[in-house]
Write a structure and sequence with these properties.
Two copies of one chain form a homodimer.
Chain A (H helix, E strand, L loop, with lengths): L1 E2 L7 H16 L5 E4 L5 H9 L8 H25 L4 E4 L1 H4 L1 E3 L8 E4 L2 H8 L3 E5 L2 E3 L5 E3 L4 H12 L5 E5 L20 E3 H9 L7 H10 L3 E5 L7 E4 L14 E5 L2 E10 L4 H11 L4 E8 L10 E9 L3 H14 L4 E5 L2 E7 L9 H11 L6 E5 L2 E7 L3 H11 L8
Parallel strand pairs in A: 1-2, 1-9, 2-6, 3-6, 9-11, 10-12
Antiparallel strand pairs in A: 4-5, 7-8, 11-12, 13-18, 14-16, 14-17, 15-16, 18-20, 19-20
Helix pairs in contact in A: 1-3, 2-3, 6-8, 7-8, 9-10
Chain lengths: 410, 410
């Protein structure tokens, strides 16, 4: 049972976590609770650190930030005691969540289940501080923002848990953002692959890495609300799903966090594109969509020019422009156009693999609404289109309706 | 270099700690810094814990409270980095400060110097979270209030430090409380034994346990101000002191934290007193002064009665009364009188051992001021008198002057 920052934001909510975990033990389950820092605490600590420089040492940042979850885990154990239950808190180095030494974004290598099982054998609830681990030299590490989800799924895998319940302030995964499309429905079951695409595309219910680990180890994840007892969304393997209820398209996502760059008049020769994207990779800038058009001024294969369009995260835009401005001259670029007023709209679904014409249907729906498609990318289970940001809501609602996702009218 | 809560109370003061420790490295020293929690932080954490019951589990209290020093150690390392220095924070379990499992009041068993020496060999300052340790099962422990002094002295012993500097908000140890006697002088050098008596009697500059450890391992301690560079007080062995500057009486202390109980008309038979104090010991109540008078109504050796007077800490008074009320009947006690409006005034000094008549001189000084002595206790290096609390200031000033401690008039 993993509880995020808003679910442990104050003393009353921590009491609620204690109550909820004890209810689960009373159903006959062994319970391991993973907690985040109280909402706002991590930012408070990082704010203190940034008073000592813009780029504080990563090792010390982790030692500092890890205290947030340590506080919550001790308080949660005390809250369980107050309700008459047994509980023992465990820190990352006590469990032992062994990670690499990449401070502030460490990766879990192994998790020892001995300490957890010792606590469970005593009939107690193990309350584990999420987000944190320890490297092989005993240094405190953290897993990066949202890392408590990753802790929870990895620990669930290590102890072979029946289910990993992720308690959050929403009651599950939706077919799209309910704020954009009121007809959005809660999804009862979704595959890891679909969840990955939805998560990376902006439906930020579960951290991507936690879904990858769940998929790798077959951990059944239940995303649900910490404020009520309704069933949420089960994230599981395709095999574990009920095919009958599976729709062709599972959800519609959008991501406003991309910016488009178009390099005009690039020399159309072998190796040119590799040079550009190699330079971006060297600068540690991730590129998402890439489209290469033969330019309007093409004069045949040799000596011709081409346009190259690609997208990067908005946070990387300034650095990407600097890299391209430098490399552009080498490849004969005549002009660089930048547009950060774009949105990527995507449809995601396992069913797409066996249904032809899904992409064509998406393009048709957008065309019917008069929305121009600026770039397209596809995978086995998703189709993404880059469009002008002003059409976001219109596009999401049209696709949601067009692919039959709207909930029945009341 | 140990810095207490007021010395790390905010970002600016932590910067001052960083500056001060770097100054020391520039003098050619290897530096280990031990820090407390930021002033108020430990109380904030314990306040949170007490929202989950009056007697929260001690193990969880320690996991919670230890975060205070963890935060300061990381921030202090960052502050040193900002000033261009090298520093690495270390937690109790990273050092490894091995303790017993007596949560909230753990005792240090051993300290491993490997991690500290590794940091020093890198030319960096080791910034250690005070107050905390780890037991042999990996549980986080704390050393009790003021435990950072104990951490500092024990670590100084483990690494064979040249000196253990205790930075605090006063500039040294005084001959008495300057608020009571403006003529009080800063003591340049004091022996461990004298410091122990002064500390336990109310001059709360150094935690008693830390002085005991310093004495046991011969750690030279320098108590000084974190706000200026003046020399403070050196606490050292008798052998390390300059005999010429040593006064007969080193200081005058007072303790308002005792209460007096008098049992009237107790049967004067062998074993009776043992029965009373055995019962108090069973209730874990420490008794300080004990006086047994033959009662005014004594009728000879057999069948006579006696009065027994003793003092306990004010915090234990209610419990002591309950124990005595019960046991009193068994020993024929006729009446129990309680007086908590008393103070214990003490003179302390190594020189007393070789000077006869020190106690008599103390009694004479008090008598001259018309102060009645209610109880007396003596040791090799101190004499304590219990008097009415209203005479505290008068008695302290008279003793301070009478034993030649006043600073020369300006």
């Amino acid at each position: 049972m993993k509880f995020g920052g808003t679910s442990v934001a104050n003393v009353d909510r921590i009491r609620n976590v204690a109550k909820r975990s004890l209810e689960t033990t009373k159903l006959g389950h062994d319970v391991v609770v993973i907690v985040s820092a109280m909402a706002g605490e991590t930012n408070r600590l990082l704010g203190l650190a940034h008073q000592f420089g813009e780029l504080p040492d990563a090792r010390e940042m982790d030692a500092l930030a890890a205290t947030g979850e340590q506080v919550t885990s001790a308080l949660t154990a005390l809250a369980i005691h107050q309700l008459g239950g047994k509980a023992v808190s465990l820190l990352g180095h006590q469990v032992r969540v062994l990670t690499d030494s990449a401070y502030t974004k460490a990766r879990i290598k192994t998790i020892d289940d001995t300490a957890i099982r010792t606590v469970l054998k005593q009939g107690a609830i193990a309350v584990i501080a999420g987000f944190q681990g320890v490297d092989d030299k005993g240094n405190i590490t953290t897993l990066g923002r949202g890392g408590s989800d990753t802790s929870a799924v990895a620990i669930a895998a290590a102890i072979d848990a029946d289910v990993c319940e992720i308690f959050t302030d929403v009651d599950g995964v939706y077919t799209t953002d309910p704020n954009v499309a009121p007809a959005a429905r809660k999804i009862a079951k979704i595959s890891y692959e679909e969840m990955l695409e939805l998560a990376s595309l902006g439906a930020k219910v579960l951290q991507i890495r936690s879904v990858e680990i769940a998929m790798k180890y077959g951990v059944r994840v239940h995303v649900r609300s910490s404020f009520d007892h309704s069933e949420g969304t089960i994230v599981t393997s395709e095999a574990g799903m009920n095919d009958l209820e599976q729709l062709t398209v599972a959800g519609v996502a959008y991501d406003k966090n991309e910016a488009k760059l178009t390099m005009r008049g690039v020399v159309d020769q072998p190796g040119v594109v590799a040079k550009i994207f190699g330079a971006l990779a060297d600068a540690n800038i991730s590129v998402d969509m890439i489209i290469q058009n033969v330019g309007a001024t093409a004069e045949g294969a040799a000596g011709g020019t081409t346009d190259v369009t690609f997208t990067v995260g908005k946070a990387d835009l300034a650095r990407a422009k600097a890299v391209i401005s430098q490399k552009g001259a080498e490849v004969g670029m005549k002009e660089l156009r930048v547009d950060d007023d774009v949105v990527k709209v995507s449809i995601v679904g396992m069913g797409m693999r066996s249904h032809a014409g899904i992409a064509a249907k998406m393009f048709q729906i957008l065309a019917t609404e008069g929305i121009n498609i600026q770039a397209i990318s596809t995978s086995e289970i998703k189709v993404s289109c880059l469009i002008a940001a002003k059409y976001t809501e219109l596009a999401v609602r049209a696709l949601h309706t067009g692919f039959g996702l709207d909930k029945p009218a009341a």
